[in-house]
């Protein structure tokens, strides 16, 4: 069985290193969600008595997917899918808190202040140069992080919806949204196994 995504150590530095943040999300999605069909196919129990030659005696339409044992499906969801989703939710939630918190250690703060000071001293004459009034100050890293998180949250919702459609089809799940299924899993999970972080 595929292993669930392992949550990285959550620090502000991890969040501000947006390449590390994006890499974690990309690797988690590719190993769990992007390969959901292969992960589910791996749960199909092979024939218990070995190969049955009579299975090839007739040519006809066959189901594209063999049925998956409900216990195997439940085990995959409880041990791999939902823990991976939770790890990604925790990372996104933590980094969202970092993005909305004061950032006294911003290395670009002095540069930004100098840029603002230079902008105040500039002489703007739009008759001579219509573009002279344009000024684009450097964004604080918290704003850049917030922008990345908005984008990643949108991607996460799309990925989970697509994954859940396949899981419902292959595991004969009752019709419900992925949010409801994840909430039910969280509710059934003991508080010793995971510490909830505010949902993104």
UniProtKB/TrEMBL annotation:
GO cellular component, one term: mitochondrial intermembrane space
Top-rank taxon, per record: Eukaryota
Cited InterPro entries: MIX23 (IPR019171), MIX23_fungal (IPR016805)
UniProt similarity note: Belongs to the MIX23 family.
Designated name of the protein: Caffeine-induced death protein
Protein source organism: Phialemonium atrogriseum
């Amino acid at each position: 069985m595929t292993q669930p995504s392992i949550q990285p150590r959550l620090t502000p530095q991890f969040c501000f290193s947006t390449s590390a943040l994006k890499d974690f999300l990309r690797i988690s999605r590719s190993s769990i969600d992007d390969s959901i069909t292969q992960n589910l196919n791996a749960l199909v129990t092979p024939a218990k008595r070995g190969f049955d030659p009579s299975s090839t005696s007739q040519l006809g339409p066959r189901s594209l997917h063999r049925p998956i044992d409900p216990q195997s499906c439940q085990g995959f969801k409880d041990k791999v899918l939902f823990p991976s989703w939770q790890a990604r939710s925790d990372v996104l939630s933590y980094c969202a808190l970092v993005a909305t918190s004061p950032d006294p250690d911003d290395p670009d703060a002095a540069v930004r202040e100098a840029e603002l000071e230079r902008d105040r001293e500039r002489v703007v004459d739009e008759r001579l140069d219509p573009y002279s009034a344009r000024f684009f100050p450097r964004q604080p890293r918290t704003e850049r992080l917030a922008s990345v998180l908005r984008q990643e949250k949108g991607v996460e919702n799309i990925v989970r919806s697509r994954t859940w459609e396949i899981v419902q089809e292959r595991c004969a799940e009752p019709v419900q949204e992925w949010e409801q299924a994840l909430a039910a899993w969280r509710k059934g999970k003991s508080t010793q196994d995971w510490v909830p972080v505010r949902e993104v």
